[in-house]
């Protein structure tokens, strides 16, 4: 399964200058920006060749289409990352989240700019390991290793299979440890990069600040948190417009009205999105000094938070 079929839909080259100009310290802004673009150029050129979920010929990668909500259900259960979801997850995420392949691959590119030698890189809520694979492909700092954490046993099992497949396809990848566990109970090691890719929205709102505070305390100088989330909007007309456009995106990817409605019912009590303003305020309250949105497609966005 190549979840990154649309990997050519990437950030325009000019956007990297914008990102660099917002993140670089003013004292060496010009040289930092040039180095950022130069180091990233060869990675960006190869993104279209890199699948979000890759595996060797010996690894069974699910190609099953997402039909979980295709038939009428007498009672729609709350959404859970169980074996049924894991089986169709690559298809589900590609057809449900606009810009997902772009976020995943560029997350690896961004992480390479912040990774510190001999540090841990965290993928929190790692699901099938797409972000972990991107980190391993792009980060070249000496002595780095990845710790991927997810609380779904089914996700962890399949993630390990995919990572074993990646090991057989590439040489000199970062070592990785996949942990089944609750990220709220995780004891963080000193880290230079933390990825929360569509994970925070599934954590109870009252627990989010404490988690982000602990992440900030574990971040090394020069490191970064990269946070991707579905957004809600304070302006009711803006929220309605982008919600309608997201529904149109799902229709265009083959989901029926029944599937869209039942999936919405399943997830509305489980996933609680925040506004961009709420994310920014919470990250600053957690101790981060700067929050930079680097990507948005419809009502999905990704942010860089600096210590």
What is this structure, in a nutshell?
The protein is of the alpha/beta class. The protein has helices at residues 13-23, 29-45, 83-96, 100-114, 130-138, 153-169, 205-218, 236-252, 257-267, 276-285, and strands at 120-124, 145-150, 176-180, 191-197, 219-230, 290-297, 300-306. The model is unreliable at 1-29, 31-37 and 39-61 (pLDDT under 50).
Give a topology summary:
Elements lengths: L12 H11 L5 H17 L37 H14 L3 H15 L5 E5 L5 H9 L6 E6 L2 H17 L6 E5 L10 E7 L7 H14 E12 L5 H17 L4 H11 L8 H10 L4 E8 L2 E7 L1
Parallel strand pairs: 1-2, 1-4, 2-3, 4-5
Antiparallel strand pairs: 5-7, 6-7
Helix pairs in contact: 1-2, 2-4, 4-5
Distance between the termini: 37 Å
The global form is: globular
Q: What is the count of β-strands?
A: 7
- Average pLDDT across residues? 85
Number of domains: 1
For the largest beta-sheet, the strand count, sense and barrel status come to: 7 strands, mixed
The CATH topology assignment is Rossmann fold
Class inferred from helices and paired strands: alpha/beta
The CATH superfamily label reads Vaccinia Virus protein VP39
The CATH level-2 architecture is identified as 3-Layer(aba) Sandwich
Alpha carbon gyration radius: 19 Å
Tally the helices. 10
| CATH level 1 class label | Alpha Beta
Topology pattern, helix = H, strand = E: HHHHEHEHEEHEHHHEE
In what range is the share of β-strand residues?
A: 15-25%
- The low-confidence runs, each spanning 5 or more residues with pLDDT under 50, are 1-29, 31-37, 39-61
Helicity level, as a percent range? Answer: 40-55%
The largest beta-sheet arranges its strands as 3-2-1-4-5-7-6
